[in-house]
Design goal:
Length: about 70
């Protein structure tokens, strides 16, 4: 699963809008939108913070495999 897919997956799983996720992560809506659409890749610190946010919300970020899409293998 790509980073953009992970962001989308986590957001949908939590029932958040892009705006709500941006507020929770203390980033702009545009940042979430670019991450989710694969237009930009976050810096390492943002990846760490997003990973911690996922873990705090019972989403196992580290187990989302690169070839996995929403819990099923391609």
């Amino acid at each position: 699963m790509t980073f953009s897919e992970k962001v989308h997956y986590a957001r949908i799983k939590l029932g958040y809008s892009q705006e709500k996720l941006a507020q929770e992560l203390h980033v702009s809506f545009a940042t979430i939108n670019r991450w989710e659409n694969g237009k930009t890749e976050p810096r390492n610190m943002a990846i760490i913070l997003f990973s911690k946010f996922c873990e705090d919300n019972n989403i196992n970020f580290s187990s989302l495999e690169e070839d996995e899409t929403y819990g099923t293998n391609k």
